[in-house]
Every structure is written in structure tokens, then in C-alpha cells.
Write a structure and sequence with these properties.
The protein is mainly α. It is globular, with a radius of gyration of 19 Å. The chain is built from 15 helices and no strands.
Length: 377
């Protein structure tokens, strides 16, 4: 295992936080942003188009990490991320704005694949799980911070949330200063030559389903909370960041939880938490009960995504890691993009939440069957 400074670890975690904010940072002010940009399609597309960009570019970027190395790929991702995100506030053409958000997704997947590759190369065993748990915390804590800031800035002016993307330039400086440029994988990481592991299948399936369930609330809550409970944009941001805060706390306990239960069982518990959360959202007569729903959704997100990230690394070797991480990114952000269509469905939002809970039950059954069939644990 390589010796890693605390500043290097901090930089990796800060870069990880950029992945959750790629679309969601503008969510609290989404109605005002869509109106001022005169966006003709569903406003939720502005949140999820970067996710489609990730899906489109993941196969290419996942393979390129083997040729460029994680350092160069991370550097290539950070600067376009900052500029494309920021410039979105000043593009008055719908088509150019769509292209901008798609390319932002390409920059995002470059960051995600690079950071996870670094973690896989720098750490092994329990230390790797610990760092991936921290990575999950960083991603989710990024949701807490950036959503809250996005809500406050959205009240000051609809363009201001786009300025948050410029934080990637600061992280670029941190990366240039602290991240090792060349890492040699350890002997045991090089040893395995297996080109495909069937256990990848249920992990990828769980990834797309889990993120879709999580992101449905991100797509629907910005309009639902103000209309039903008279939330302001900042209150909407705080509520949505609360979900991420719960996920941070849950992810922090993953190393301890995996000592008592298998990753398979913890993922199933995560899916059940989604079911409970959406049922509470569907039948909440007051904002207070919605908080319990948010708590349950946060548990689901905190249990599933970080563990699935760890599991995909564990079933990969040095040769397949880039490809598998690219596929993992494609599934995660594909789930985000699929969640967009929930906003387009001709259903009352409460009914949408109810149907989401029902679908989550089906997804839970699917995961139980796949994990047992593939003997993932």
C-alpha cells in the first residue's frame, strides 16, 4: 500500500463531492432558472442532462483511464467541469444549453472514474472500504452543502447557483499540488487476469435502480414542496440537503456495518428504506411527516451507492477496473436520467410517490433474486 498524505485524501474526497452537485446544485432554484433561460422542455432536464452525458461518455472515459492514467484524466475533467457548469447561466440557446449540460456530464464522469481509480490503487482491503465509505460521505455531504448554498443563492438571483461550479478550479489547484502523478499497482492487484466477473451484473443492476429511486425525489421535490407546503427556495434546499446529511451519517458507519452483515443484505435494507420513504412522501399531510420520509430516503442512499461502489471495485482487477468503473458510472447516472421521466408523467405528485414505492418493492425482489443467483457475497 502506498503512503498517502491527509491532504491527498482530502483532495480526493473534495473532488468526489463534485459528482453529486453536477445536476442537483441548481435544483432548489430550478423553476426560476428554467423560466429565465426560456427552456422549452421539462425543467428537470437541466438537472438530469449531465447524467445523460455521463451515460454517453462513460464507455470511452472508462477505457481511457488505462491509457491516460487517473491523474491526467482527473486534470482533464476538472477545468471543463468548472467552465461548462458556470457558462450554463449565460447560454440563451436551448440547443447549446443541452450540449453544454451533456459535456458537463462527460467532465463529471472523468472526475468520478479518476478518483475511484486512485482509491483502488492507493488502498486495499479494509482501508479501501474505509476510503470508499468516506468517498460516499463526501459525495453525500457535497449534496448537503451545495444544495443548501444553491437554495440561498437562488433566492438572491437565478444565475447565482451556477457560480458554485467554479469551486472545481480550486480543487484543480489542490489536485495539482497533492495528488501523485504516477502510481504503480501492487502485485496482487496485477495478478488477476480474469476479464469478466459475472458478479458485475447484479451490482450494475442495483446501481441504476438505486440511483433512479433516489433521484426521483430530487426531480419532484423542488416543485412539490413549494406548491403543497409553501416552502421557499432556501427551505427546499435545506430539506433536500437533509436527505444527503442522513446519507452521510449512514455511509460513515459502513465499515462497522459490514462487519456485522453482508453487503448484499445491507443493499436490500437500503431498497426497503426507499419503499418506506416514498410511502411517507405519498401520504404525508404535513411537512413534519415528510421529514421522516426524507430520513428513510437518506438511509437508502447511504447504504446502497457507496457499498455498490466498493463492490464493483472488489470484483474488478487492474485490467478491468477502468471499464467496470465506467459501466458503474453509466448505471448510476443513467438512473438519474431515467428519474427525469417521473416529472413528465401525467400523475399527481403524491400518486407518483406511491407508484415509486410500489416499483421499489419490485426492485427489492429483483435484487434478492440476482444476488442469490450470482452468489455475490
Amino acid at each position: 500500500m502506498n503512503k498517502v498524505s491527509k491532504f491527498t485524501i482530502l483532495t480526493l474526497l473534495l473532488n468526489s463531492s463534485l459528482t453529486i452537485m453536477v445536476g442537483s446544485v441548481i435544483a432548489p432554484a430550478l423553476p426560476a432558472i428554467a423560466e429565465n433561460l426560456q427552456f422549452r422542455w421539462s425543467p428537470s432536464l437541466l438537472v438530469t442532462l449531465p447524467s445523460l452525458g455521463v451515460v454517453l461518455f462513460s464507455p470511452i472515459i472508462g477505457k481511457s483511464v488505462n491509457y491516460l492514467g487517473p491523474y491526467k484524466l482527473l486534470i482533464i475533467g476538472l477545468i471543463p467541469y468548472a467552465l461548462l457548469g458556470f457558462l450554463g447561466a449565460f447560454i440563451d440557446s436551448n440547443m447549446l444549453l443541452i450540449v453544454d449540460r451533456l459535456l458537463l456530464g462527460a467532465a463529471c464522469v472523468a472526475i468520478q472514474v479518476s478518483v475511484t481509480t486512485f482509491i483502488a490503487q492507493l488502498f486495499e482491503g479494509k482501508d479501501r472500504l474505509k476510503l470508499i465509505a468516506w468517498q460516499g460521505m463526501a459525495i453525500e455531504f457535497g449534496g448537503v452543502v451545495f444544495l443548501a448554498i444553491g437554495g440561498v443563492l437562488g433566492e438572491l438571483g437565478w444565475q447565482y447557483p451556477f457560480y458554485i461550479y467554479l469551486v472545481a478550479l480550486v480543487f484543480f489547484l489542490f489536485t495539482w499540488k497533492s495528488i501523485p502523478k504516477n502510481i504503480t499497482p501492487s502485485a496482487n492487484q496485477k495478478s488477476s487476469q480474469k476479464s469478466f466477473d459475472k458478479r458485475v451484473i447484479p451490482i450494475l443492476t442495483a446501481s441504476i435502480l438505486s440511483m433512479m429511486l433516489f433521484f426521483i425525489c430530487y426531480v419532484n421535490l423542488p416543485a412539490y414542496l413549494p406548491s403543497k407546503f409553501n416552502f421557499t427556495e432556501s427551505e427546499t434546499g435545506y430539506f433536500m440537503s437533509f436527505i444527503s446529511l442522513i446519507a452521510v451519517l449512514v455511509a460513515s458507519q459502513l465499515p462497522r456495518l459490514t462487519e456485522k452483515s453482508s453487503a448484499e443484505k445491507l443493499n436490500i435494507i437500503g431498497f426497503i428504506s426507499f419503499v418506506v420513504g416514498y410511502l411517507l412522501f405519498a401520504f404525508s399531510p404535513s411537512s413534519w411527516l415528510m421529514i421522516f420520509g426524507a430520513f428513510s430516503i437518506g438511509i437508502g442512499f447511504g447504504l446502497t451507492i457507496p457499498l455498490l461502489n466498493h463492490m464493483i471495485v472488489e470484483v474488478s482487477n487492474h485490467q478491468t477496473r477502468g471499464k467496470n468503473l465506467g459501466l458503474y458510472s453509466m448505471m448510476v447516472f443513467g438512473g438519474q436520467f431515467l428519474a427525469t421521466f417521473s416529472d413528465m408523467a401525467p400523475l399527481d405528485t403524491n400518486l407518483m410517490f406511491y407508484y415509486t414505492a410500489v416499483i421499489a418493492v419490485a426492485f427489492t425482489i429483483v435484487q434478492v433474486v440476482l444476488f442469490k443467483k450470482m452468489n455475490i457475497t
